[in-house]
Amino acid sequence: MSSSPLEETPAKEDKEQRAVQSIEVGGRLLLALANSQTPLTLRDLSSQANLPPSRAHPYLVSFGKLKLIEQEPETGRYALGPAALQLGLTCLHQLDPVRAALPVAQQLAASTGHAVALAVWGNFGPTIIRMIDAREPLHVSMRAGTVMSILGTATGRAFAGVLPVDRIEKAMAVALGDPEGQKTPLLKTKSRALREAIAEIRDHGVARAEGRPIPGVNAFSAPAFDHEGEPAIVITALGHQDYFSADWNSGAAQAVRDAAAEISGRLGWRAPNSQTRRNRESQIPPNMRGDLSRE
Question: What backbone phi and psi angles, to 5 degrees, belong to 199?
């Protein structure tokens, strides 16, 4: 005996993960408040949520009972409430940069076909914690646990471009094995390279490797920031120079910028003027832009 279409409907809907439209509509109001730096009037809030005020008001009453929003008694303006704050703090406490970055890295690898790596700043400097292979074979020695050169790789320079200068210089001095405070010609050369790395991230939003340190392999790297503007992780895409352009405006470079911005968003960072792609510096927290005036 064959089943009727009515009997098949619940199973089909379960597969498609049924949504509650009213929650999605009300959620637009919460998101509008989250994107505003100041409390909003009912008119402005409903406009930003693309709802008529008469429809928005019942949602606001319910959110108020849950303490997700609160209304200023003097002005009548709406703002996020203490329950929304608790949700945000709990989310931050549970947040794992690697877990936030991994789906973005996997999508970047799938959409571009390039190899993609994620790195954090470890005890010995930039350290690979995840490597996703390229669609076509790419012979590189990078794997989880590999410590990258601070200034000799795009991954390292992405960190060098945004971490405090004194922290990078201290790591370089240890790597050179120089006594503390000693200034060798090699250390001065590395200081120049550090200023170049800072300028690279400031001007382009990514660090670049062109045929070095791996001959024939190009790469772009970009840092992602947490909710306090601290560099949490660096994402790198790399591929053979025959099909991976090293041009600053290439598709690969833009894809890495977009991936880093998405990870930053997942980690709670909101860059000022984030829509201005021409101003790469606007994507970098002000306290992370380094000091280019140092000699």
Answer: -65, -35
